[in-house]
Amino acid sequence: MAKKKTVAKRKAAQKPQPHFTPELFSFLRALAKNNDRAWFTENKERYEKHVKMPLLDFIADFAPRLSGISKQLIADPRPVGGSMFRVYRDTRFSKDKTPYKTHASAHFQHQASKGASREQSVHAPGYYLHLEPGSVFLAGGLWQPPTDVAVKIRRAIDVKRPEWKRAISRIELEGDSLKRPPTGFDPEHPLIEDLKRKDFIASIYLSEKAACSASFLDDVTDACKTTAPLMAFLTKSAGFSW
Q1: Which residues have CB under 8 Å from 198's CB, separation 6+?
Q2: DSSP-assigned letter for residue 81
Q3: What is the architecture, at CATH level 2, of domain 19-86+99-237?
Q4: What share of the chain has pLDDT > 70, as a percent?
């Protein structure tokens, strides 16, 4: 009988535990209503306990999963300079002077972006995880690449049409598009709407409930796998290794 109890306890201890709890979203909702330094200072322990540390733990546990999708992508659990975005907003050029972001997020960059400035890093394909009350999603792709990279991608879409169609067969692309066809492409091109894209992004939307479940690591991994064909196409077309 004692042996059975020991086995049961061991199995319970091995059962995956959620990285995040509803307290993460409760804190972010409260922060949205009290977005000032005095309130944040008083509640910084809540932020550390329910937002920062769980997110860093998630990133660390996600690293081997991400490596299984592409060894070129980085999940870095360092609190500074790693995958987690800081909670502090850059208000220098914004009319909105509230000091804190009301969401938690992380980016999983390509190795080619390592050591590059933020302006350069966003031009390499990568994944982005967003946790906000009412908005939980995993996005993959390229957001407004510079002209030379966009041209490479458009040429690849034109030349490798079947491969492109397979890459987007399970997803729906999001983002902005040009009002007119890009230079050098026939307005009647069968993929003209894809060629007109300024953003090459796909998102998998989840929920607060999912984020607080023990299966969230699996959910995010599955979302990455779903968007991996798009990521691979964009990465290779932009001139990076996948």
Answers
A1: 144, 150, 175, 176, 177, 178
A2: T
A3: 2-Layer Sandwich (3.30)
A4: 91
